[in-house]
Amino acid sequence: MTGRHGEVTAAVEAAYRDEWGQLVATLIGLTGDWDLAEDCAQEAFAAALATWPRDGVPHRPGAWLTTAARHRATDRLRRDATGAAKLRQLAVLERDPAEPPVEEIPDDRLRLIFTCCHPALPFDARVALTLRTLAGLTTAEIARAFLTAEPTMAQRLVRAKRKIAEAGIPYRVPPAEALPQRLAAVLAVLYLIFNEGYDEEQLDARRALTAEAIRLARVLCRLLPAEPEPAGLLALMLLHEARRTTRTADGMLVPLERQDRSAWDAAAIAEGVAVLDRALVSRRTGPYQVQAAIAACHATAPEAASTDWPQIAALYGTLLRLAPSPVVALNRAVAVAMADGVAAGLALVDELAAAGTLAGYHLLPATRADLLRRAGRTDEARRAYREALPLAPTAPERRYLAARLAELGDSAT
Questions:
Q1: Residue 233 burial class via C-beta count within 10 angstroms: exposed 0-12, middle 13-18, buried 19 and up
Q2: How confident is the model over 243-253, as pLDDT tens digits?
Q3: What is the pTM of this model?
Q4: 251: which DSSP letter?
């Protein structure tokens, strides 16, 4: 019997991972009530834990859970005398005349993703709401992941849901002319979630965010197969995740050129390259596709010495045109240094330093220090490393910079 319960628990956990976002999305579409949708979804999973050990795991767990949750939502609304009126009044249920009929939308999760990431919501609220409604993370889990107090995160979620209701944010996919801008906001949320979990020294709660971000990116790719940028983001995530375990060693950051490439995840790299290739067929290049192409250049080089730096420098030039930022310009400077010589890269880094747009950003003096070291300008490199050290945000990065200083005969202390 214990084995049977274990199998059922595993089946419910798998269904939670696979079906939570779809279930909540369906219930919000039916009721317009976000809290009611989450409550009824939770009740459906509790019912599964109670009845599946006796009746067996259904052939289609998602359909079973949806039916159970719909019944609970209907019962709750019937008990509420204002339930029917509430459904008519909620702005999230209002349909735009130009919106396709429900059956033309491939998945309710698409509506939910765009609603969670609506530009009227603060960015941190978009992230929290996405993790709560689409990934099924608890408020406590989200708070731990973002190093925030649970009551603070709970209030953030409450305010986001209230904003959706009070502002009449529609529960729909944006029209075609607004899709590129809105899709960019969705992708930015998913990439932030990934990066929050990709930090070298974070807790398991945060590291689980990378898996959630990749899973949600896969969902978005299935829902929008004609859009290349979700595929570009998925490819970028997979290529970064492939080398996660080699990015630190003994609590110290390991730069790309020194990482053990034999320990990289070959399957993730192959999938990332294949996803990117499919995206590039559209010939509608976007920032995530370009970033993925850069990551692919690194991931597919057999060794650091064979990295195609001229190609990477050219890709960074493209990225700088598509998404101009001083951080992209700094990365391009490194690629130029590797492709055209240290002097060319240093000139670009010095231009950025003079502009002041990266003041206080630790990678500016750290990059300058590394290039000065390669150029044999040891005294200047020491000064730049000392400048970067207190600005570095994580312990692995600080240990790496201190080690570089030690190699140059200087002590970080």
A1: buried
A2: 988 988 888 88
A3: 0.78
A4: T
